[in-house]
Amino acid sequence: MPLTLDRLNDSTQAAFTALLEGTYEHSPWIAEAAWAQRPFATLAALKHALVAAVRDAGPAAQLALIRAHPELAGKAMIAKSLTAESTHEQDKAGLTACTPEELATIQQLNAAYGARFAFPFILAVRGPRGTGLGKKQIIDTFRRRLRNPRDFEFAEALRNIHRIAEIRLDDKFAAVPALGHQVWDWAERLAAHSDPGYAERGELTVTYLTDAHRAVAQRLAHWMKSDCGFDDVEIDAVGNVVGVYHGARPAAPRLMTGSHYDTVRNGGRYDGRLGILVPMACVRELSRAGRRLPFGIEVVGFAEEEGQRYKATFLGSGALTGRFDEAWLDQRDADGITMRQAMEHAGLCIADIPKLRRDPGRYLGFVEVHIEQGPVLNEVDLPLGVVTSINGSVRCVGEIVGTASHAGTTPMDRRRDAAAAAAELILHVERRAGAVPDLVATVGMLEVPKGSINVVPGLCRFSLDIRAPDDAVRNACVDDVLGALRDICDRRGLTFGIEETMRVAAAPSAPAWQARWERVVASLGLPVHRMPSGAGHDAMKLHEIMPQAMLFVRGENSGISHNPLESSTSHDIDLCAQAFGRLLEQLASETP
């Protein structure tokens, strides 16, 4: 019989620990510590209590937990002395059936890893979907993680241990993250479409109105109509995929949601797309149950957010706010094709673009779910985070002008070194942003044109990107950095020029909508973690005409994004879908 929360909640500490035996390898102390947190209303709450027990135990106990795990395809597997759980997992990944060459490779990696880190390599070999990683994936991950710093790898080992425990708990409870699996599978199928030049290398790149982009749009539209039960589905005049599930009354207001389906070059499967697929799965559940809510649901797959083919970011969401700039139509891509030509080739009706502007009076608001694209949720061991504001940003490009001179004959106290001034500025930027919570600042481009190994740099070009969830905080940093640039150049006898290239206002979450996300996260049995978004999102465009709020989902591999390693587990995605469904229910209870 599957384990139940009622049975666990009614157990003594000894019985509780026995029921959870094997969840964490040879470490009953974790269950013993979590027992005091009963009763658990949800399986997510139980998982978090176990994670918290490990987190609170300290480095020595955490190291002992890591060392309690066997090596992959190691001596214990060969000797058949693994626990039943570990045997099942390594078998699922094919590690019990390695070729002699594969076994030799893994054992060499085990030895190298142990010598470098002094603990075994830990990997949740059943993978983000729970169906098992391939041996090549395992070996590639092994090699990649060997390059990590020790503290990072220590944390990564613990994260993988918690993932192993999560899957083992599902086995005990006979729990299946069905919505998470569905979204994960959809994302994998969409990733089969990629632009030429990238598809051949197995890389995911989908840029505006390419064949791959249009194929993704058609696939989304098909799923919305045939699989999910949307009432109306269209691909609009800029290529947005729009699905509408009507409310109980024809004139009912709508909740808008969605995200973008284009990608950066060689990007990941979840950035943007998760925010389309999660609400699709929730609409599918409503449709299958034959339910109508007091409001309609409009899910938009925005055609363009990343600005990869043309320099026109937020084109899809901008059209819905009436901010489509007709000058964009004359932009040319790398092959000389104008946006106008691309749109006409795709069969889009450019004359209809002004009609896409939404009347905010018809909408309750806009919500977006998105993969975090950063390490914070990993570091706090939480699957979901509530966004407080999307950072406003200022970008500049500048140059510092000194005097190029002979590196051997110019004394140090007589130099007018432009690169040294830029280095001083970079350190000031780092210190200034690091002193204020949630403020970030980056010099991402640095160039010494025509520089030479034996010449003191006479010119240095640089970029500046400053972001914060509050415009006043951001602006104060910009003013301070520009003042520091002036002081540095005056002191060093240099001149400078700087040009602001972009200024975007912050988009604070609407308090009522942020509170709704917080309530649904708490209802799942999880702590509410509030955080700003350092990246821009379609929500910041909809923010211009209606209230908005976002929910973040934890990513794997320390939350890396805009990278092929971007990933999330079907369990975290399932919690996101549950949260979205509960948001709909909460809103239904509030809507007349």
For the structure shown, list the relevant keywords.
592 residues, nine-stranded mixed beta sheet, five-stranded antiparallel beta sheet, single chain, alpha+beta, 21 helices
Polypeptide structure, described:
With 592 residues, the protein is an alpha+beta fold. Helix content is 42%, strand content 15%. The protein has 21 helices and 16 strands. It has helices spanning 5-9, 13-19, 29-34, 43-57, 59-67, 75-78, 84-92, 100-117, 135-145, 150-173, 178-190, 211-227, 274-289, 315-320, 339-345, 376-379, 418-434, 471-492, 511-523, 538-542, 570-590, and strands at 232-235, 241-245, 254-260, 296-302, 363-371, 384-390, 392-401, 405-406, 440-442, 446-447, 455-456, 459-468, 495-504, 507-508, 530-533, 548-553. Strands 1, 2, 3, 4, 5, 6, 14, 15 and 16 form a nine-stranded mixed sheet that branches. Strands 7, 9, 10, 12 and 13 form a five-stranded antiparallel sheet that branches. A two-stranded antiparallel ribbon has the order 8-11. α13 links the parallel β3 and β4 (296-302). α13 (274-289) crosses α21 (570-590).
Radius of gyration: 27 Å
The amount of beta strand, in percent, is 15-25%
Major beta-sheet overview: 9 strands, mixed
Distance between the termini: 43 Å
Q: Name the helicity range.
A: 40-55%
Gross morphology is globular
Low-pLDDT regions: none
Reconstruct the topology from this structure.
Elements: H1 5-9, H2 13-19, H3 29-34, H4 43-57, H5 59-67, H6 75-78, H7 84-92, H8 100-117, H9 135-145, H10 150-173, H11 178-190, H12 211-227, E1 232-235, E2 241-245, E3 254-260, H13 274-289, E4 296-302, H14 315-320, H15 339-345, E5 363-371, H16 376-379, E6 384-390, E7 392-401, E8 405-406, H17 418-434, E9 440-442, E10 446-447, E11 455-456, E12 459-468, H18 471-492, E13 495-504, E14 507-508, H19 511-523, E15 530-533, H20 538-542, E16 548-553, H21 570-590
Parallel strand pairs: 3-4, 3-5, 5-16, 6-15
Antiparallel strand pairs: 1-2, 2-4, 6-14, 6-16, 7-12, 7-13, 8-11, 9-12, 10-12
